[in-house]
Design goal:
The protein is an alpha+beta fold. It contains six helices and seven strands, in the order H-H-E-H-E-E-H-E-E-H-H-E-E. The chain has one domain: Heat Shock Protein 90 (2-Layer Sandwich), CATH 3.30.565. The strands form two sheets. The protein has a five-stranded mixed beta sheet with strand order 2-4-5-7-6. A hairpin with a 6-residue loop joins strand 4 and strand 5.
């Protein structure tokens, strides 16, 4: 049986904040660069390009903020429930781009917030298995309030990063958790709070991430 990672509440909070900042720094930086170009360059074509960059980056930053608020935030009071339809909208805004497409086969229903947070964090983990892009297909396991999830990821060179299975299961209690490891560790913590365990394994040319 694996040990729970040696991480206290303050370290967990700090590492999750680092994780959120990592997702936001790229589009926010692009907005700043776009504004600088817009203000300093007098060429109309360049100004138009800069404005489009600002608009696109602002949309990306907004989508990532909304996703992170649900995936990592308090998401309402204790015992709150979240609509899977809302979760789908946020997941698409965060996950989908020119390289990654999401197929969402979950019914629209209310689930306890930690189960929905678990799903969103599983998507982040699953996306790491297709570094060159591909598809993520989300299916339900079970029905009603006990609904759980399975995500099949498929793409060129899809693979399971070596450290992730152990970190999902609880990791090595003798090793400190760093910013690179916090995502699967947090996903595992969410799963255990729901009475579930997350596994990840190759299945042919695809990778299955499953909570059960």
């Amino acid at each position: 049986m694996t040990a729970t990672p040696a991480i206290d509440a303050l370290d967990l909070a700090a590492l999750l904040c680092s994780r959120v900042c990592h997702d936001l720094i790229s589009p926010v930086g692009a907005i700043v660069n776009g504004l600088e170009v817009y203000e300093e360059d007098n060429d109309e074509e360049t100004k138009t390009f800069a404005l489009e960059l600002i608009k696109k980056s602002a949309r990306t930053a907004s989508a990532r903020l909304q996703f992170c608020r649900l995936a990592f935030g308090a998401a309402g009071s204790a015992g709150a429930e979240i609509d899977l339809g809302d979760a789908e909208n946020m997941a698409r805004g965060f996950i989908e781009d020119d390289k990654v497409k999401l197929t969402w086969n979950l019914p629209r229903l209310l689930l306890p917030k930690n189960r929905v947070k678990l799903l969103l964090n599983m998507l982040i983990v699953a996306a790491q298995t297709i570094p060159r892009g591909g598809t993520l297909v989300v299916d339900p396991e079970g029905t009603g309030p006990a609904t759980s999830f399975r995500i099949m990821s498929r793409g060129p060179n899809s693979r399971v990063p070596p450290a992730i299975p152990g970190l999902l299961a609880g990791g090595d209690g003798d090793k400190p958790v760093d910013a690179h490891a916090i995502q699967p560790v947090y996903t595992g913590l969410l799963a255990r709070s729901c009475g579930l365990a997350v596994t990840i394994a190759a299945e042919g040319d695809a990778v299955l991430t499953r909570a059960a």
